[in-house]
From TrEMBL:
One GO molecular-function entry: protein histidine kinase activity
Chain ranges passing through the membrane: 450-470
Protein name listed in UniProt: histidine kinase
Ranges where the MalT-like TPR region domain occurs: 177-393
Amino acid sequence: MKLVYILLALCWSLKGFSQVPVKKQQLIDSAYQIASYYKLPVDDRLSAYRYCCWKTVYLDFNQGLKISGEYLDLAKTTAQHDKIAQAHHFLGHSYLMLGQIDMAERILKEGLDLALINQMYEGVATLYGDLGNLKNSQGNSDLALEYHFKCLDYANKHQLNVEYARAKINIGEIYEAQGQYKLSIATFQEALHFCTTHKFGGFKSSIYENLGNINLSIKEYSTAQKHYLTAISYAKRLNNNNRLIRSLNKLGELNLELNDLDRALQNYKEALRVALTTEASLLEAKVRTNLAEVYLQQNHLKEAKVNITLAITQLEDLKIKEDLDKAYIIAAKIDHKLNRHDESYRYYQKAYRIAKDNHHLQPLKLASEGLALAYEARGDLTKALTYYKAYNNYNNQIRNEEGIRDIIRLEMQDIYQKKSLADSINKANEIKLLQYQYDKKEERNRLRNYTAISSIIILILLVICITYFYHQKKKIAAVLSKKNKVIKEALNDKEILLKEVHHRVKNNMQVVSSVLYLKSKNTENNIAKKALIDSKTRIDAMQLAHQKMYLKGNYKQIDVKDYFNDIVKLLLDPIKTDDDAFTVHGTQLWLDVEQAQTLGLILHELIANSIKYAWSKTSQKQVNISIDKLEQDIAFRYTDNGCGLPEGTTIESSQSFGLKLINALSTRQLLGKLDIDNSDGFDLKITFHAR
């Protein structure tokens, strides 16, 4: 049966999701990438791990456990003892919140020993405080106080403000649990003042919750409720799930004591939801105990049995005795109503033993009454009488404590009344001060009115001036617009004229080319015919440049790569076979029209010479052409795999018209540098400055 209840709790907990906000989780994930990347410097990784721990161990305990464990492993590889102590604190806290008490104690003591040896005072104070919290959760309040006072001592000596505040809060909690309410209130008020002075907003949720606990104990319900709501507000604002669960749980206890079962149930369910999503087993068990009590009073016995069984299982597994006696008594009452008298009797016995060990009067009273009734029902009147006497004894002790609480409550009410009187006097003085401030404010308002009227007049004058200048500017803009229109029309006419000129030049070159072609057809002299064909192809190369300008609408520059491809198609495609390779290398490059035409003529002459002289009839033909821009210089290169220039022939001494033309165009027209390598075929390179 117990296994079924555990499985039910597990299924319920699986519904949860991380309480870390999405944006904060994204920051944590980014920092964790840095922390876990082993190639980064160790100091950077330690800083990233520290950030991740701060953002997770108080919100998502399992995630905090994983990251703090990695932080400790990395810190131990260094001599940075402060980081090692801090990692022990984070890891020990995570184990404690997940209910793994033995592991938490081992980690915290190990960290404390290292911090003491290396005189890391902040780490010593922090770990003493952690051990105090651990011992308090185990019900050993005396040892817990001893640890917390050691923490306070180190914090005082070494001016550790955060640890001082923590120690004060922890000591105040133990005083409250021991019934020393005046001492507890004084301690918490001192802690609250200290935190306000030093702007430690993160501790305020804890302080207000504990002040609520004290006021609940002395039956100052309205004050307790106000403190609990303030604590919940701070916990939500800071995403402190641990404190949020505790505050909601205590608010539920207040409503339960006021017999407002619906509100109590609402508070407990909200606390349980947060506890399940963060897998805080210890807090979950406490909330389930209270939730079972509400269901019991509402006579929802099935729900009460499920929750109390899960709570007892968790408390027993975690070896937590603080609330176990209370859980046993609730379980006994539920089983009694379910007519499971043997189970009820066993739970009362367990509750009595634990309560007696921890001197918890209220559980002792209830357990004694339950056992007396159980033995009476069994006919064992001797034992029944023994437990009735114990019941009366504990009841008298509780009445004495209640009397003390009533005295404290009356004293507190007297304090509140005196405070209200002082507040009233202060209020009257404040009213007088406010009246004085109001008169001063009225005087300042009159001065502001005079200033405003003057400003309005100046603004009106300024608007008039701006309007005048605006209209003047508008007139000037109209005149400029007309002139711009005339200029645009003239420019458009010139563009049309330029386009027409280039079109006619292209057409005239085409006519000249056609005439030369026809003349070559009608000429019998081979030399003349060859000269006419060469001239025609030169004209065609120049015509291609004008065709590019006309088609692209750009009369200043030509894309030379595209231009070269057209020349190659014009001259080499007619002689190309499947084995030949004619390639133009480079990317799109725009050059000045004059320079581009000059390069086109040079390329024409080079291809013509290759066709005439480079290859035998059976050789595989290859031509590689490239043009690149290097900063402000243009590098043009032409290579073929032919026989090259005759031995001893240079381009300057050559009698060939084509080579002379190439030399002249390169050095005079382009003002470039010409280099020829005749070792392996023909290789020509021209370097010149782009316009």
